[in-house]
Specification:
The complex is a heterodimer. Chain A is mainly beta. Chain A is built from 3 helices and 31 strands. The chains are: A mainly beta, B mainly alpha.
Amino acid sequence: MCDQTFVAITFGPCDRCEKNFPLMSIYIQGEAATYCSFCVDTMACEGLTKGETLVTLKNESDSLKKKLEEERNKLHDIELHKVAEKVEVLGALPIKTRRVLKGHSNKVLCMDWCKDKRRLVSSSQDGKVIVWDAFTLNKEHGVTMPCTWVMACAYAPSGCAIACGGLDNKCCVFPLSLDKNENLAAKKKNVAMHTNYLSACSFTNSDMQILTSSGDGTCALWDVESSQLLQSFHGHTADVLSLHLAPSETGNTFVSGGCDKKCNVWDMRSGQNVQSFETHDSDVNCVRYYPSGDAFASASDDATCRLYDLRADREVAIYQKDSIIFGATSVDFSQSGRLLFAGYNDYTVNAWDVLKGTRVSILFGHENRISSLKVSPDGTAFCSASWDNTLRIWA
Amino acid sequence: MARDMSDKEILQMELAQLKMEVDTPRTATGANCQDTIDFVEGLAADDPLIKGVSEEKNPYKADKGGCTIT
């Protein structure tokens, strides 16, 4: 997407061999160094144990993947939609657009609901972050960020702050005040710093910690007050595009999805990647936990959404149709977990029956691709944000 | 950061992760699917997006049809 970093070629003495060559700056054990490309190659080979080459590592990796598949298949006795055959078929859904939120002058990239079920925050390519009241369509607060492409925004659980970030590689927190005349931008607090764009951010159960994911391939947990990095999560081999925290009160895990086609489940306290799933054929754009916390869904550029069960440690359902060829950008579950709403690049929202794996209805209305979709905290409505500069509330 | 790692380091990281994952405790799919279905069945009756909400209670429906002066 917008992940092109142009490297300026510097010419000078290499740190290792002292000769003048075009230099590459790399990180060794966390420290920056500039070496010429010859030294980089020599050093890369030195770091391996005897007999290890790219090929042997790859072979070992492939054989382990096969073994993992076998272990998972041993417990695969029946498909979800077969078990769900006795479940009643869903009737037509009474859902249509109830509100259209206009106000952004460019693509709306992200949105989040407040826990009070009526406010939401949205961020857009024009650099504006707006807090709306969904019932009355009032715009309650507006902030202009210095960078364009604000790709992530989140509402704090208390409803008293919002966090946002994007191409500026940072995540900033703005406390919201009741005084309409107050200048929000003056209270801005920079919390997170990444080395590449911020793709998603989310408050944990309190206002004091924020979890962020970035184009640099890592996720990180930050303390808001001190802006300290509490924990970082390494394991993705490409940009991380989305993350979602487990819904339980005591939950300490979150799931992330990235451009390496993987969805990883992490333990927040240890920083350890506890489970990983690689069945998509293309970038994973969005991940969402199931309301029960035992499963999660992912949406991908390969035009499918998939459901993964955490206890069975495998993919249990694919939501796809031959007629759907555009990538899915975002997913969310309805309150009971029976419906999965997915927004696609073909401007539609599809509602899938989670248990049976069939599509229940298609919702038309947007005039450009859907960038973000979230169900409200009480499950009465969901909001979709789109590149057509509007947000729509469906109920 | 993934961008700064060489291919070999990335493969080593993946290998370490896979070794850990082969030993993860797992349960049978069928039992988990049944649990999921029971969970959903319990809640589906109250799901506002499935069953719909009556005109009076739905905060989003009262859009057209007159204004109230307070």
